[in-house]
Amino acid sequence: MTPPPERWHKLNKDGGVNNATGAAVGGAFIRDSSGCWVMGYSWTIGCCSLLLAEHWELCDGLSVAWDAGIRCLVVKSDNRAAVTL
């Protein structure tokens, strides 16, 4: 795991959708530039597509970081379609 630049934070997020039920969950953690844990969380998103779940995770992660006073943030996502959009 590569840390962000000095004085920045990094949001690593991931989630999934149960193909049978459509139930989506997400989770994320934020680390500082030295790689130290700042915060982490998980949540149930509801029933939706994987792409929509990725967007909810991004919005929630940005909101949590903003509320924590974090303004310089690198976001890591493993979903190319979500990043492209």
UniProtKB/TrEMBL annotation:
Pfam family, one: RVT_3
Name of the protein described by the UniProt record: RNase H type-1 domain-containing protein
SUPFAM superfamilies: Ribonuclease H-like
Source organism, top-level taxon: Eukaryota
Source organism: Gossypium stocksii
Gene3D superfamilies in the cross-refs: Ribonuclease H-like superfamily/Ribonuclease H
One Gene Ontology term of the molecular function aspect: RNA-DNA hybrid ribonuclease activity
Domain RNase H type-1: 12-84
PANTHER family per UniProt: OS05G0353850 PROTEIN, POLYNUCLEOTIDYL TRANSFERASE, RIBONUCLEASE H-LIKE SUPERFAMILY PROTEIN
